[in-house]
Amino acid sequence: MPSTNALPTVTRASSEVLAEAAKGTDSTFQLLYFPLNGRGELVRNLLAYSGAQWEELAVDWPVQKLKTPFQVVPVVYEHTASGLVLELAESNAIERYLARKYNLYGSNIWEENLVNQYYHNAEGLIQAFALRVVGAAPEARIEEANKFYTEVLAKFVSIHEEHLKQNGDNGHYVGNSTTLADLKVVQTLDRILLLVPKGGVPVPVSKELTPSLWKVKEAVEGNASYATWKKSQRSQDLNANTKARFQF
Amino acid sequence: MAATNISLPVPTKADTTVLGQAAKSTDSTYKILYFGLHGRGELTRTLLAYSGAKWEELPVDWANQKEHTPFKVLPVVYETTQDGTILELAESQAIERYLANKYGLYGKNAYETHKVEQIFSSADAVAQAFSQKIIGAAQDKRVEEANKFYAEVLPKFIAIHEAHLAKNGANGHYVGNSATLADIKVANLIDRLLFLRPKGADEVPFSAEKTPNLWKVLEKVNAHPTLAAWKKTERYQELNAGTKNMFKF
User: Fold this and answer.
1) Would A108 disulfide with which of A42, A181, A243, B20, CB 3.0-4.6 Å?
2) A160 interfaces chain B, CB cutoff of 8 Å
3) Edge-to-edge strand list for the sheet holding A85-89
């Protein structure tokens, strides 16, 4: 439950001082985002997955907008153990920052690149979904969704099932452990699985149809603090709000 | 003229520890596979030129090459590292970050990297909006859409970014005292917006007078010698023409 309306005061200091303070994994976080999934979902998923202490700030957008770095949300305020407050902005920049901090970005420049390529390929998928399905008039949704599943999603699935098999079909895109790539793809699929037009065909993503992708989903959902978050009332409310907002 | 040629470099198969070692190479040569326009290849070509590395373009024969690319999209970049390893880079934004990281354009610590990413994301949102609303508009709607964009979307971006640059000392850089991917991305965006102004549309609202801090970023990036040299090449002019042709500007 959002606890306060006021935005934290951000510490002014050099990037060296801020970066030093932000080392380590004992910060607490406050997230400013609307009460739906949108561009806040993966940030929330990462905060939950990390096991860090985090809470949501109450949104009062007309008042808060001009106080945010780019006049958009999400914004995350990181309270470091040493008492500094860092301001993180732009959803995908926040996601990468958290991934780096919590060791979810691979262990060298090559692995980081691999994480990025899967991240961006998934971003392409969700953008196509937003444009073609969510953006369609409600009466055209079922047809657009069907086209999306057979033309766009099927191609994505086939490419990704292959990549996952090349990595040993171990439930991970890169190496042997969870990275931002896994979390991004799972969130992308969750979004598509959530926003199914009423009366439409089932999304062709499942344990039977997409076994390697499903393994990635199960691996992420096996994380205790992530699972707890997903079961929470707040997470259920966000799902419901998202469906309502886009008329699904 | 490039002959049709499906043959692509064969990436080295090895585990990611080995490839990670090879990827540290700052003495690599590169081959880029992308179509004859700027599009999603532009920032990659810009970064390759900016880095001063040796690079060349591979002839495109998309129908035959598609199946051999990691995600069936372009660009793909093949890097031959100092020790002879061949690395296959895919997805434009992943390639851009990899090159930025490798060539010291990604910030000096995790917080600076985050600031670079904030700016990149903010600029990319404008680039995408431009692509959808103006490039994607029917030709008879282009001028109207462009004018709306210049009057509604750009002023907000400009105000926010001029302020960020002022906060960093109006030194021609978004982060610290040196060029990063943030500078290069924004310079690229401004160049693209200026270049793809529909005939008859209003002036694009970037200039030394109207947007002094952003203009300084643009000038510093474009003054970088190896980048400036690339932009003078015949190939670069072909890409300009290819871009205008493709999108009918």
Assistant:
1) B20
2) no
3) A53-56, A28-32, A75-79, A85-89
**B71: which chain A residues are within 8 Å (Cβ-Cβ)?**
117, 121, 159
Q: Residue B86, SS3?
A: strand
Query: CB neighbours (10 Å) of residue B109?
Result: 16
Q: Chain B interface, mutation test: which of A17, A71, A92, A117, most B Cβ atoms within 10 Å?
A: A117
Q: Are A241 and A35 in contact (CB under 8 A)?
A: yes
pLDDT digits (tens, 9 = 90+) for B154-189: 999 999 999 999 999 999 999 999 999 999 999 999
Please state, in angstroms and rounded to a whole number, the distance separating the CA atoms of residues A193 and A200. Answer: 12
The ipTM estimated for the assembled molecules is 0.96
Output the pLDDT for position B153: 97
Query: Please, what's the b/e burial string for A23-57 (b: 16 or more CB within 10 A of its CB; e: otherwise)?
Result: eeeebebbbbbbbbbbbbbbbbbbbbbbebebebb
A98 touches chain B (CB under 8 A): no
Whole-number Å distance between alpha carbons of B191 and B236: 13
DSSP A140-186: GHHHHHHHIIIIIIHHHHHHHHHHHHHTTSSS-SSTTS--HHHHHHH
Distance from CA of B1 to the nearest CA of A (A): 31
Give the pLDDT mean for A153-165: 98
Q: For residue A66, list its beta bridge partners.
A: none
Question: Between chains, do A92 and B115 touch, taking CB under 8 Å as contact?
Answer: no
Collapse the DSSP code of A76 into the 3-class scheme (helix H, G, I; strand E, B; otherwise coil) and give the result: strand
Each residue of B107-166: pLDDT tens digit?
A: 999 999 999 999 999 999 999 999 999 999 999 999 999 999 999 999 999 999 999 999
Report the alpha-carbon distance of residue A64 to residue A31 in Å, rounded.
13
Residues above pLDDT 70, as percent of chain B: 98
Q: Where are the beta strands (DSSP E) in B12-155?
A: 29-33, 54-57, 76-80, 86-90
Residue B129, token pair as written in the block: 């909006």
Asked if the model's pLDDT at residue B1 lies above 60, the reply is no
Q: Residue A35: is the preceding peptide bond cis (ω within 30°)?
A: no
pLDDT at residue A75 greater than cutoff 80:
yes
Model confidence band, residue A24 (pLDDT cutoffs 50, 70, 90)? confident
Contact B175 A15 (CB under 8 A): yes
CB contacts of A89 in chain B (<8 Å) are: 118
Please give the pLDDT value at position A85. 97
Which CA distances in Å does A143 have to A117, A140, A200, B198, B216?
30, 6, 8, 34, 49
Of B16, B111, B122, the CB nearest to A70: B122
